[in-house]
């Protein structure tokens, strides 16, 4: 059991260093990116997908805020949600055996995001036109107002002050706090699965998951809907440990919009619209995950 604890601490420390570096780097660019997501309606699903790929769950909150204020379309919001994967990228980069899958994961999520984002905007073209009218009306009413976006730890992404103290807080303290929160999840997940495998045996654990192969995309999607960074940590750790397929991983991470859904249901009073967005995301995630799983299965048979 001591070996399980030491392995969990070792893996968590390695992941922490990479996550912290990522969060510090992102703190310098997230404000500029957040302010550009609503600049071009025609390219917004693509732009939203690109921004969503950055490992920072605050972007799903920003996109939700923009959507509830009719500054972006439903397709753009869903594109951001699909592209988001919270801590998956730094965790995979911290695992040498999975680094080679980082680029395919990003490309797949990017393509799924902007493809279905554009498709949804075409389907809901009328709603999009109404939203554009609302944007023009609101822009007139709020010309002098500065939009302030909140990050996942409820801090302001755009700082209005340039003081050194403020910059330290934004570029070091917030990334450090967020990284510490994430690493707690990573440690708990590592310790839990390490103990589980130790008690029931690695072969028995793998056999159980393999017997549930065609249900893992569904299970992974359900986990991905949990509004917390822990869900992306759990899905990624399962993939790193070869417990779930790449298709199931894609399915779960496409469903993983961080705290975005929590803010959507809190701020958007149109319940039917919220449920439509939720149902669309689940359907897209399951379709993508099962399609990749089928391809994986066919490749193993060749």
**How many strands?**
0
C-alpha end-to-end distance: 41 Å
Describe the main β-sheet briefly: none
With helices defined by DSSP (H or I, 4 residues minimum), what is the helix count? 15
Walk me through the structure.
This protein is mainly α. 75% of the residues lie in helices and 0% in strands. It contains 15 helices and no strands. It has helices at 2-27, 30-36, 44-52, 58-68, 74-83, 88-93, 102-123, 125-141, 164-200, 202-211, 216-224, 229-240, 246-255, 260-267, 271-301. Helix 4 runs antiparallel to helix 5 (74-83) and helix 5 runs antiparallel to helix 7 (102-123). The radius of gyration is 20 Å and the shape is globular. Mean pLDDT is 76; it is low at 129-133, 139-151 and 157-161.
Q: Which features would summarize this protein structure in a list?
A:
mainly alpha, 302 residues, globular, 15 helices
């Amino acid at each position: 059991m001591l070996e399980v604890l030491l392995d969990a601490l070792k893996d968590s420390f390695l992941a922490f260093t990479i996550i912290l570096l990522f969060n510090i780097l992102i703190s310098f660019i997230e404000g500029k990116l957040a302010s550009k997501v609503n600049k071009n309606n025609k390219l917004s699903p693509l732009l939203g997908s690109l921004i969503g790929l950055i490992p920072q769950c605050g972007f799903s909150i920003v996109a939700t805020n923009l959507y509830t204020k009719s500054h972006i379309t439903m397709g753009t919001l869903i594109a951001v949600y699909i592209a988001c994967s919270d801590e998956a990228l730094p965790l995979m980069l911290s695992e040498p055996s999975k680094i080679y899958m980082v680029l395919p994961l990003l490309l797949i999520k990017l393509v799924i995001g902007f493809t279905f984002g554009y498709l949804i905007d075409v389907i809901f073209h009328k709603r999009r036109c109404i939203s554009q009218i609302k944007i023009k009306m609101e822009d007139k009413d709020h010309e002098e107002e500065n939009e302030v976006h909140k990050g996942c730890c409820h801090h302001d992404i755009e700082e209005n002050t340039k003081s050194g103290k403020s910059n330290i807080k934004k570029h070091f303290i917030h990334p450090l706090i967020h990284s510490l929160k994430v690493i707690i999840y990573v440690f708990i997940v590592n310790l839990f699965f390490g103990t589980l495998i130790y008690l029931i045996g690695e072969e028995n654990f793998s056999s159980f998951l393999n017997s549930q192969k065609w249900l893992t995309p569904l299970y992974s999607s359900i986990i991905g809907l949990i509004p917390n960074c822990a869900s992306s940590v759990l899905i990624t750790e399962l993939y790193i440990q070869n417990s779930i397929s790449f298709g199931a991983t894609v399915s779960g991470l496409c469903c993983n919009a961080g705290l975005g859904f929590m803010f959507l249901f809190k701020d958007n009073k149109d319940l039917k619209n919220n449920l439509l967005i939720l149902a669309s995301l689940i359907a897209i995630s399951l379709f993508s995950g099962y399609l990749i799983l089928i391809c994986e299965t066919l490749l193993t048979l060749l």
